[in-house]
Amino acid sequence: MGSIQHPRRGDTRQCIQDVALELFAEQGYEKTSLREIAERLDVTKAALYYHFKSKEDIIVSIFKDLTRPVDGLVAWGLEQPRTLETKREILSRYSGMLTDAAPMFLFLEENQASLRDLRIGALFKERMTDIRELLEEPDAPLSNQVRCLSALFAIHAGMLTLGDDEGHPEERREAVLEVAFELVNRAHGVTE
Question: Could you please report the per-residue DSSP string of 110-131?
Fold first, then answer.
């Protein structure tokens, strides 16, 4: 059928996620059925249902797999001193995580309307709030809260909007981090 081989024992869940994300990217979330995913995998729909009951279950599982590193970053950040260097390191690590998970985040961006009511919206918002709180000082003025949130959005926007013709991927990442660092620096009274 498709380009995916029959999965080995233990790889089935990952193969389903990969094929589903591939089809969602090709056709859109709404236009892809569980039947099509099963056909691309060359498995029965019953075999697919053994692992996932719905398309939403597949997307949530992919999202949770991709956010485990973010959860680790938050845990790490909570153990660190609340210094500007720590906050810059959080932004840098987060930027790397987004780069590694680019296909999923591009899918989320392109399918916002279809995914608005799914559980991943709330999960994503929780992760963003956790990271924002690591960047902000307690009782920070509203303008500094906005700067810290804008630093996170700069990383997202840079990944999603700067196309391949905008320079080498690492150059784009460095430029986005430079802007994010400037915002966090300013929120902490540092002007360079």
Answer: HTHHHHTTSHHHHHHHHHHHHH
pLDDT of residue 2: 42
For helices 169-187 and 84-100, angle between their N-to-C axes, nearest 10 degrees: 150
Query: Do 67 and 150 sit in the same domain of this protein?
Result: yes
The whole domain housing 41 covers 12-53
pTM of the model: 0.77
Measured between alpha carbons, how far is 136 from 152 in angstroms, rounded to an integer? Answer: 11
3: its two tokens: 């380009």
Asked if the structure places residue 3 within a domain, the reply is: no
Is the residue at 108 inside a domain? yes
Across 35-39, 54-58, 115-119, 174-178, least confident range: 115-119
Assign 163 a pLDDT band (cuts: 50, 70, 90): low
In a domain, 20, yes or no: yes
- 189 token code pair: 């009274």
* CA Rg value for the chain: 19
Looking at the fold, whether 84 and 146 belong to one and the same domain comes out as yes
